[in-house]
Amino acid sequence: MNDLSKAGTFSLGNHRVNRIGYGAMQLAGPGVFGPPRDRDAALQVLRQAVAHGVNHIDTSDFYGPHITNHLIREALSPYPEDLVIVTKVGAVRGEDASWNPAFSREALTQAVHDNLRNLELDTLEVVNFRCMLSATQDTAEGSIEAPLTVLAELQRQGLIRHIGLSHVTPTQVAQGRSVCDIVCVQNHYNLAHRKDDELIDNLARDGIAYVPYFPLGGFSPLQSSALSQVAEQLAASPMQVALAWLLQRSPNILLIPGTSSAAHLRENLAAAELVLPEEALEQLDKIAGAGGA
Ligand SMILES: NC(=O)c1ccc[n+]([C@@H]2O[C@H](COP(=O)([O-])OP(=O)(O)OC[C@H]3O[C@@H](n4cnc5c(N)ncnc54)[C@H](OP(=O)(O)O)[C@@H]3O)[C@@H](O)[C@H]2O)c1
Q1: Is the whole model's pTM more than 0.85, yes or no?
Q2: Mutational pocket test of ligand 1: of 100, 223, 261, 266, the residue with most ligand atoms within 8 Å of the beta carbon
Q3: NADP-dependent oxidoreductase domain: which residues (predicted)?
Q4: pLDDT tens for residues 172-223?
Q5: CATH level 2 (architecture), domain 10-223+251-261
């Protein structure tokens, strides 16, 4: 059994969660579309995560679509009392597996009801507005006031407990916070991609969780000689070092590494026990300096 408590906890709205959680996106089929290759294995990964102390799971109805939410419900419902399931709205999948923006009042309301039904919940603990204002995957400035106003109304109706943001710029975070309380921000960040450094520190000062997506590099996990060297010196795996680095980067960082493999899950959870010495941190800084940031 891994001891997740070694990595500590942080607030997610009115919850206190372990800093290592689990991201469910990898449980859907190839391209995050359709059913998993091995359904039983996917259910097992979810059950093992919770059995090992994970109490924060990240999902969305656009994974599959609907597939990961159905797997979560089947594997874990009735849910443990301390489990916080965080979902996201703001996009829909096309029949060709495309990801399309969907943030009208109707689309957001529908998405919240779909998540409630598919997860079999009366209230969604945290809903991230996944900002997709441009057709590209790059973050794009633009007003998020209208969609957040809709989510705040759904929150007042009791369908959502807390609101978060994803794929947003610092300006959009500030704008979002002027509309409603924001409990977490989920952006692309890892050892090699550190654009959000200042945002993370600002959120930490205000007690807001920062949840990096692609903590291991996403679909092509991080690879670098510096990372491999540090891992070897510490008798750890490169992925454990990447996670331990995030844990040490700032106390408000909550991890949601994604995996479809029970062995990788165990490896990732064991990163809670890894402490990186100062020399290792210096070596790892070379990765960002090498152009990955
Ligand atoms: N808000 C957004 O726009 C957004 C975007 C992307 C993701 N997310 C969320 O963030 C979560 C994390 O991102 P992610 O899953 O895309 O990327 P990730 O956690 O950076 O990496 C996942 C990849 O790493 C592999 N992996 C995991 N553990 C490993 C290990 N110990 N050794 C070797 N390979 C390992 C996985 O393959 P295996 O399955 O073979 O382990 C998978 O290919 C997602 O699950 C999702 O919930 C949010």
Answers
A1: yes
A2: 261
A3: 19-287
A4: 999 999 999 999 999 999 999 999 999 999 999 999 999 999 999 999 999 9
A5: Alpha-Beta Barrel (3.20)
